[in-house]
Amino acid sequence: MLSRLPLLITVAALWSADAAYAQQAAPAGPPNVVIILADDLGYGDVNCFTSTRHRTPNLDRLAERGMKLTSFYVSQAVCTASRASLLSGCYANRVGLEGALNPTSRGGIHPDETLLPEMLKSRGYATGLFGKWHLGHLPMFHPFRHGFDEFFGLPYPNDCSNQYHPVVRTFPPLPLIDGERVVAEDPDQSQFTQQVTKRSTDFIRRHKSQPFFLYVAQIMPHVPIFASREFEGKSGAGLYGDVIEELDWSVGEVVRTLEENGLTEKTLIIFSSDNGPFLSYGDHAGSSGPFRGGKLTCFEGGVRMSTIAAWPGSVPAGTTSTEIVTAMDLLPTIGRLAGCERPKNEIDGQDVWPILSGAPGAKSPHDAFYYYADRELHAVRRGKWKLHLPHPYLEVDGTPGTDRKPANFKNIKAESLQLSGLKGVASRHGYRIEQLPLSLFDLEADRAESKNVAADHPDVVEDLQRLAANVRQPLGDSLAGQVGTEIRRSGVATP
């Protein structure tokens, strides 16, 4: 029975008290940390996970050097929420950043939240972010106010442009920022991957003599997609294939730079994505591989990411873990490795170093994983079982779109700007809203979540419903009319 409060919510009081960690101690000395995060990359877009039509030789080699994580989850299948969780170690709901911010938003990450770069900077790390930030675009939310020493990239998504958004024609010009200065408006997006890569490799060279945290937050393959002249037409799999091959090249450049500077065995690399593919965009979107759904859904295709951890000599090469690991776990795991103090605020992530280091018999520290869409609790997973509570979800409206346009593009009208929430997202991006009844899926036998076996396992349904009831108290559930008691406020900039 699952009557106790889930372990995901009850974090150990002291990191050093974890017995499993003590049995598998970290290597001597703080590691460099490189997190490479793609934007809207599908689980089915990385060859070593699904043998796709896309060529990803550098990611394949990285997996050979390290560990594939095949049950790695982000907290929500949308950009801001996912990134807030990665850097804070919390469910997005806990820090009040559900959904996605845009140029009209006045909110962002609260200054009282302790983010991963702030923790590492306190230990003498150089910190750099190159790519997309998306935790608030106003001055109080700038990456420099939250632990980063260097920043080059976008404050929000690359479709927040009158030229490329399917509906909006009132956005300001898309700003490309270097430090705190706008260096271009509506820049040439075909250069984004090249620019982010160049700045990232330069950062490594300049900081090779001290510990560093490099966050490579790639802008692609979020629509609108672009490849540079060097890669356009190269893949033979359309523009999306070109974009994937350029991203793979970028990973190779980062790894090569670490090698050339003698940093390979001193550096933990994590590769992942912020959420699944934007399926309504058709030939300009990726694939969820064996999973159902994509971005903006709580099906596996929206929140389960093809993720690689590599650190030669510390993470065992050529291995695979099926244990549940989440993006929220990176903060406490990396924090422990770097000797940081734990944040004063409550976090939901757990130290997963025993899993990453290949400790014999290492299991996920998570008693359960909770699938949220905005403030709605949609599903609960424990072990192989996933229970969907009755909830609405998005389905591509007809035939997926082409050429940077979403499905049902001809019927998308400007009036949809007046809509909010799920209805607004559906209206603007070529989806329709469907309703899912109470559904239980065996993820080991049915990765596509296609066969509802709730009637065959009433005891499992009852136990998972009890877990859902437990988590509603701290984190809330708007579908049940419940406001969480442990939700913290996001930051809000005053006019």
General description of the model:
It is a single chain. By secondary structure, the chain is of the alpha/beta class. The protein folds into two domains: 31-360, Alkaline Phosphatase, subunit A; 370-485, Arylsulfatase, C-terminal domain, CATH 3.30.1120. The protein is 23% helix and 19% strand. It is built from twelve helices and 19 strands. The protein has helices at residues 19-23, 47-50, 57-65, 79-88, 116-121, 192-206, 238-260, 300-303, 330-338, 353-356, 421-429, 458-475, and strands at residues 32-38, 67-73, 107-108, 126-132, 150-154, 175-178, 181-185, 212-217, 267-273, 304-310, 319-321, 325-326, 369-373, 376-382, 385-388, 391-396, 431-436, 439-442, 491-492. The strands form four sheets. Strands 1, 2, 4, 5, 6, 7, 8, 9, 10, 11 and 12 form an eleven-stranded mixed sheet that branches. The radius of gyration is 21 Å and the shape is globular.
